[in-house]
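User: My advisor, Dr. K., asked me to get a structural model of this assembly before our group meeting. I'm new to this, so sorry if the format is off. These are the inputs:
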Amino acid sequence: MSKIKIGAQLRTVRDYCLTREGLFDALRRIREMGYDGVELEDVHKVAEPERIAEYLRQIGLEVCCTRSRYGRTEFDLDRMIEEAKLYQTPYMGVGTMGCEDIFYSANGVHRYAAFMTELTRTAEKEGIFPTYDLRSEEFVRDGEGKLAYLRAPGTPFPIDTLLAETPQAFHIAPDSWHLVFASMPIPEVLTLLKGRVDIFRFRDIKIQPNDLTFYRALRDPCECGEGVLDFASWLPGLRQADVKWITLGQEFCTKDPFACLEISLRNVRPLLD
Amino acid sequence: MSKLIPAVQLFTLREYTQTPEGLENCFRRIRREIGCDTVQISCIGREIPASFLASLCREYDMKICVTHAPPDLVFSGDVGVYRRLIREHQSYGCDILGVGNSIPRYIDDGYEGFQRMLRDLAPLLRELKENGMKFAYHSHTYEFVKDPRTGRYIYDMLVEDTDPEVFHFIQDSFWMRYGGINHQKYLEKVAGRMEVLHVKDSTPRQSFCGTAEPYFGTIGEGNIFYPPILDACKKTGVQYLAIEQDYCQRDPFLCLKDAMDALKKLIADAEKTEENEHE
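Assistant: The format is fine. Below is the predicted structure of the whole assembly, which you can bring to the meeting.
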């Protein structure tokens, strides 16, 4: 069992990565904070991957995984594989099926699984694992073109279909934020996804008052370790599952996003030491 | 290790419990069709006399494990009202007077509001204690708002700053998952101070923006994984698991029946696990 490394979700500081200078500055700052690695998301639009890879080597920051949207897998797979190889990461993000109307079309999940299986076969030959961004809708009962909650109990969850119809090399990166919205407990998720989880995303939740419906409190993003999620209690399970990377981040920040990344690292690093 | 007893939280059937006839029909159906002999009183018709409730308990041989008394009475600060509530509870043999939630005048003031709530509850707690009874606070998720000065959750304040003998809790499996809170940890935190746990399932729905949102579901049909929760319940002295489904996608009696069958199986599995551990 190797030591779990900590990566930053570059998405947290995405507004600062719109130019090459901004991107390189963000990567440097992330390294200086003490992160072992970074999740690179859609950076090919900002700078040449060769230059990014060279800069990362210079500053000694690893790439935990790449992240791309689903759409890119349909027309740019070869370059996606090349980029992952350049960044020396075996984990190539392939986005999620949630945004693509797959849930609302008949056999959508089956078609998606078939496409991902073909894609996995291609990537595997290059030593690359396609890595799926697990969200919450995979735990809503399979709609098969209908609104999911109208389906009779007992119909499969999309995650069941995805696991049954894709090869083991099709990896999954769960995200604590989404798992809460899916009401899924972490230990059971790790059991369900056995052998496919090398990257686990930590995102924390801060409970806030809701002026409109008081009993449904708001769940807002916050720095890891500042909210209600009990990351420490998940670590034995993550170690047992041989997770390689834990990545930290948040969708929105109420203060300087770099400060947020720094606070998250400061809170989570001692849990792993 | 406590034995777990399934119960029905009458809030699920609130549309049917507003008249004496409707309430009696619910007692009969819960006893005969759902196969349950314990209920929690909540949101029944305000005009239904306690004596009628007591007679229903006798007639159908049913127990009331806890109540959700109307918040306007619980937070009235009127000792006369409190004594009446206590007499009513005694008449139908229930020694835990609960409340389903706090009220906006406390909630809207966050942590300080809840401190004021505790101060305002003092006369009720005193009256209950003198009569050998308990108060039970039912939590949602907003109790996990933090005090901005100390970083302490409202919930922790409710646990730590109250008299464990009289201030008890009713947690809810759904609302704990809704916020992503470590439920087992908070079961341990209120060990010996919670007789009743509300149980329901979470069957998330897909929202317009793609992500899922938890929704009230029938036990056995959703994503809440009960074995570790029931194990913690047994270790921390929970006695009753009261099925509550705030909104039902089909006839609430059918939801309760299906949930009860699933819950009984979960309880039997938990008992079996406990026996195996002892061998």
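One thing worth pointing out at the meeting: Chain B has one domain: 5-277.

User: Perfect, thanks a lot.
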